[in-house]
Amino acid sequence: MAMLSFDIRSLEHGAATVDAVLPPEDGVWMEEDALRPLREGIRVTGRLSAAGTGRFYFSGHLRGATLQECRRCLTPVESAVAAEVHVLFAEPGGEDDDDPDVYPLGGTQGEVIDLRPAVREQWLLEVPPFAQCRPDCKGLCPNCGADLNAGACACAAETDPRWDALRKARDASE
Q1: How many angstroms separate the Cα of 174 from the Cα of each of 1, 130, 161, 170?
Q2: What is the reported pTM?
């Protein structure tokens, strides 16, 4: 497994091929990152190359999976994530300092490009915001919390009294 950090001097002689895994236990993940990848990590492939003086460009792909809860019934759902990624790295102190899409070069005096923070951010942007266990998920009963995918609950026949006025208007018009 290759690393996700590159010495800039090595890129002066040509582009670097990236084929590595960012594991879920890596130090780049923050405590509040609930959508970390599963134990297999994120497969990162692509190419890192010079893009002018003090600028470097990564073009590649991310692939992995994360565990989420179904938005309707709270059942654990494995969500696959695959994305194309294009990231620009630049030396601090330039015209790109205010651009949130440009990552600063890290390391001692900007001699190292660490892809991990960019991969983490791109991953979090690509994970689907809502997972669903299946298209026809019925969810949970709002009254008793029973899983309606397993069958009707005892309170399923009850109606919400807040809709009574509309029911009366509908019945009167028929």
Answers
A1: 70, 40, 20, 7
A2: 0.77
